């Protein structure tokens, strides 16, 4: 048996998928994964480097691993800033960047050589690979990198340009996951709508059938697997409209996670957002005409350099009209290397926080009203946690960890991963309370 590897995974779902790939490879080579610093022969820390707070958290995690274990390999988005990491923690054994799976595994080999006695046919790895999520849902990463140059973001400099995975590989992975019991596939990338652009939408093959490397055909194929399919990080390009009828027909979940970021054309232009000229309110109206049950989630930035009171009031007016279901809002945070740092007229931090509070108060009212309208309705839910006193589930409009939950108090005969219909009995600003449908 090879050695034991400790693993710390920070950051977004895309980084989590990177961690799963590294762990699957290590497990295939016979390494054991341990949750304890004490008995690990080496610890791998997968970092996040998107904003300053994330970098600080990554440096803290590296420091803790060094203090508790002493042998630490660093990978992930902050790995592109090796000098910063080594200045803070000169004793780390190796530093690699994001998506550098082979280099990470190679660094582990240097510290703890793989066992010559390992037999992959005996030391079995589950067919879906090693997963860091509960077994009933999984993130399905369809591409790496991004072609955009949003002025507040440094993702392209860390993760490179768009690199779409072959459609056959994506669908093979999805099928393995569903066969292993996964009930929900969360499709992720930096820009899901752009899937296949870099490959000129070339035709691939899956199960002997031709499938174009494009979001529409990918969703059509995923929709035949029988699991919930949830789309994240979808930029509002015109071709997104083609996906909505599939949601109305029940092939994929009626859920879109679209990072609108702002509503003021002037601020969107300063942000260099793709598709910023699209009439988003008219698009939303049409989507709801086609699929009335669609859930729309988005994120926004307030306090962006140059944002005036008029820009912010325009954003609030847009939010009132858009009536989005789920919303996150962040104050602008400068990131080393981002073009937005050079923009004039920075917004005072206290003013940005005040705008964030006002924005979220408006959204809380909208969310509470939309959830109250679900009282009395029958919804399909997926159980996340279950015990003798009740269960926690999610509706089709709730992504794990970022949206609301459906509480099922007093229902003691459920299991995680179970799908069932429930009748909604109560609601607050974020969550629903329900009982199993008769």
Can you give a write-up of this model?
There is one protein chain. The chain has 438 residues and is of the alpha/beta class. Helices cover 32% and strands 23% of the residues. It has helices at 13-28, 52-68, 82-88, 101-111, 155-159, 167-179, 215-222, 244-248, 265-271, 280-290, 309-322, 349-372; strands at 4-9, 32-34, 42-47, 72-76, 94-95, 137-141, 143-144, 163-164, 184-188, 203-206, 209-212, 228-231, 255-257, 295-302, 326-331, 378-387, 390-395, 406-409, 419-427, 432-436. Residues 3-113 form the MTTase N-terminal domain. Residues 372-438 form the TRAM domain. [4Fe-4S] cluster 2 binds at residues 146, 150, 153.
Dominant shape? globular
Q: What is the topology, as strand order, of the major beta sheet?
A: 2-1-3-4-5
Poorly predicted sequence stretches spanning 5 or more consecutive residues: 118-126
> How many DSSP-defined strands?
20
Task: For the record, give the distance between the C-alpha atoms at the N and C termini, rounded to a whole number.
Answer: 52 Å
Mean pLDDT over the residues:
89
Structural class: alpha/beta
Beta percentage is: 15-25%
Count of separate DSSP helical elements = 12
Determine the fraction of residues in helical runs and give it as a percent range: 25-40%
What composes the largest sheet? 5 strands, parallel
**What is the radius of gyration computed over CA atoms, rounded to a whole number of angstroms?**
23 Å
Subcellular location: Cytoplasm
Binding site for [4Fe-4S] cluster 2: 146, 150, 153
GO molecular function: 4 iron, 4 sulfur cluster binding; aspartic acid methylthiotransferase activity; metal ion binding; protein methylthiotransferase activity
Organism: Alloalcanivorax marinus
């Amino acid at each position: 048996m090879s050695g034991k590897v400790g693993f710390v995974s920070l950051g977004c779902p895309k980084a989590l998928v990177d961690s799963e790939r590294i762990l699957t490879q290590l497990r295939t080579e016979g390494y054991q994964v341990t949750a304890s610093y004490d008995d690990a022969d080496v610890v791998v820390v997968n970092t996040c480097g998107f904003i300053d707070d994330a970098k600080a958290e990554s440096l803290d995690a590296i420091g803790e691993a060094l203090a508790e274990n002493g042998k630490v390999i660093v990978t992930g988005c902050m790995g592109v800033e090796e000098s910063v990491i080594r200045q803070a923690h000169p004793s780390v054994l190796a530093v690699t960047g994001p998506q550098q799976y082979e280099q990470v595994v190679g660094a582990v080999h240097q510290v703890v050589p793989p066992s010559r006695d390992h037999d992959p046919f005996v030391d079995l790895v589950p067919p879906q690979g090693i997963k860091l999520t509960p077994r009933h849902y999984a993130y399905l990463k369809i591409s790496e990198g991004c072609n955009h140059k949003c002025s507040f973001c440094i993702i392209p400099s860390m993760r490179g340009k768009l690199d779409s995975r072959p459609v056959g590989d994506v669908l093979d992975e999805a099928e393995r996951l569903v066969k292993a019991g996964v009930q929900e596939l969360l499709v992720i990338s930096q820009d899901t709508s752009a899937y296949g652009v870099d490959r000129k939408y070339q035709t691939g093959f899956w199960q002997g059938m031709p499938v174009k490397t494009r979001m529409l055909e990918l969703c059509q194929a995923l929709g035949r697997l029988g699991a919930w399919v949830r789309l994240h990080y979808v930029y509002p390009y015109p071709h997104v409209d083609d996906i909505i009828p599939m949601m109305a027909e029940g092939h994929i979940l009626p859920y879109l996670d679209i990072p609108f970021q702002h509503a003021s054309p002037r601020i969107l232009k300063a942000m260099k957002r793709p598709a910023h000229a699209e009439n988003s309110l008219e698009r939303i109206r049409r989507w709801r005409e086609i699929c009335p049950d669609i859930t729309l989630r988005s994120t926004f930035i307030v306090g962006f350099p140059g944002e005036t009171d008029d820009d912010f009031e325009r954003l609030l007016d847009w939010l009132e009209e858009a009536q989005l279901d789920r919303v996150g809002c962040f104050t602008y945070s400068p990131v080393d290397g981002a073009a937005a740092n050079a923009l004039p007229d920075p917004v005072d931090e206290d003013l940005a926080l005040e705008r964030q509070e006002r924005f979220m108060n408006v959204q809380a009212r909208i969310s509470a009203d939309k959830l109250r309208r679900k009282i009395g309705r029958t919804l399909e839910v997926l159980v996340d946690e279950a015990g003798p006193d009740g269960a926690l589930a999610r509706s089709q409009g709730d992504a794990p960890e970022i949206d609301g939950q459906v509480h099922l108090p007093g229902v003691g005969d459920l299991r995680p991963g179970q799908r069932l219909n429930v009748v909604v009995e109560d609601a607050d600003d974020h969550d629903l309370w329900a009982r199993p449908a008769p």
